[in-house]
Design brief:
Length: 328
């Protein structure tokens, strides 16, 4: 049993966000308003229907007697193969610690299997709506894959297992993913994966199936962040501080973003803000993908024309926004 210690901010009813709405006389979060411009309402409705349909299989009784596991390393390799067959783009394993679980939650299992599904970077040139649609699609796939993997462990291997994904969060994603060997935390507060950069969404399965944990994959991100500063200089809300102010949790360095400032651009506007992730050079820096490098150059050239701190925009505003940037 792991009792959580990490603070969780609900995307919809975080007390800080509620205070900010009240101070502005708003009765709903502009990003989530049903009357907002360009709301991908059907995509969100489909996502909620899919999550509801998957909910009964998220956890459940074990279906068969437990298979013997004389070799946890071999079992870990088999679970990773299974997760990839189900559609995960990368998989890692860790033993749970209290910082990986949200305060107020208790996880009755020993291990977490972390699953990543990458977002298509091509969508970045389609503007805020395209990025949001891609995010919704990837969140659904995360829920499907984690639910199917948990069911596989219960029904075919005979061990308790529970899926944890967007909307059912017991786990704190970043410490769990970092400990699972999937990447390093960047200055923008998201995890950076060698191949996907920060352009992915995670899901998890917690389980008592005997497994062999991975070790963190440290490939120089935190040193590079010290002189890169692109997320800091592009954040429209100036929510990523220029300083090296950080905390250390279980020996791991974490920079702090200013959540209140971030909300002004990511919740109090009606466009999806994904800018700190999209401007991060790790989109192509570590994997060397020439197509991603080209897309990145095109995207960054638009941001330069618009003005580095310009908020996200919808594609139909693009010419106007780029022209306004050129006049400044
Ligand atoms: S989500 Fe947007 S506002 Fe928030 S830190 Fe990233 S770029 Fe800044
Ligand atoms: S944009 Fe630069 S500073 Fe920000 S997380 Fe990425 S590498 Fe680090």
């Amino acid at each position: 049993m792991t009792k959580g210690t990490s603070k969780y901010r609900s995307p919809t009813d975080d007390p800080l966000l509620m205070e900010m709405l009240a101070a502005r006389g708003l009765d709903e979060v502009p990003l989530y308003s049903r009357s907002r411009r360009n709301l991908p309402e059907k995509a969100w409705r489909d996502a909620f229907e899919r999550w509801d349909a998957l909910a009964p299989d998220r956890d459940g009784p074990v279906g068969v007697p437990p298979v013997p596991v004389p070799d946890p390393g071999g079992m870990s390799a088999a679970i990773k193969r299974k997760a990839r067959e189900l559609g995960a783009d990368d998989v890692g394993i860790t033993e749970l610690t209290p910082v990986m679980v949200n305060a107020g939650e208790e996880v009755p299992h020993r291990y977490a299997i972390s699953l990543l599904v990458q977002e298509r970077y091509t969508e970045v040139l389609g503007g805020a709506l395209a990025v949001e649609m891609e995010t919704i699609d990837v969140y659904i796939r995360c829920a499907e894959i984690s639910t199917a993997l948990g069911k596989h462990i219960r029904d075919e291997l005979g061990y308790p297992a529970m899926a944890d994904h967007n909307g059912t969060h017991a786990l704190q994603a970043i410490p769990t993913m970092v400990a699972s060997g999937l990447g390093e935390m960047g200055k923008h507060g998201s995890m950076i994966h060698r191949e996907f950069g920060a352009g992915f969404r995670p899901a998890f399965v917690t389980t008592d199936l005997p497994l062999s944990p991975d070790t963190p994959d440290l490939f120089g991100v935190q040193d590079y962040c010290m002189h890169c500063r692109l997320c800091e200089n592009n954040c429209p809300a100036e929510a990523i501080p220029p300083s090296d102010e950080h905390v250390v949790t279980e020996g791991y360095k974490r920079w702090l973003t200013d959540v209140e400032k971030c909300y002004t651009a990511s919740r109090l506007r009606d466009e999806y803000c994904h800018i700190c992730v999209d401007v991060c050079p790790y989109v192509h820096k570590e994997n060397g993908d020439p197509e991603k490098r080209l897309l990145y150059k095109l995207f960054m050239s638009k941001r330069r024309q618009a003005g580095w701190r310009t908020p996200q925009w919808f594609i139909e505003d693009e010419e106007e926004i780029l022209a306004a940037g050129r006049r400044r």
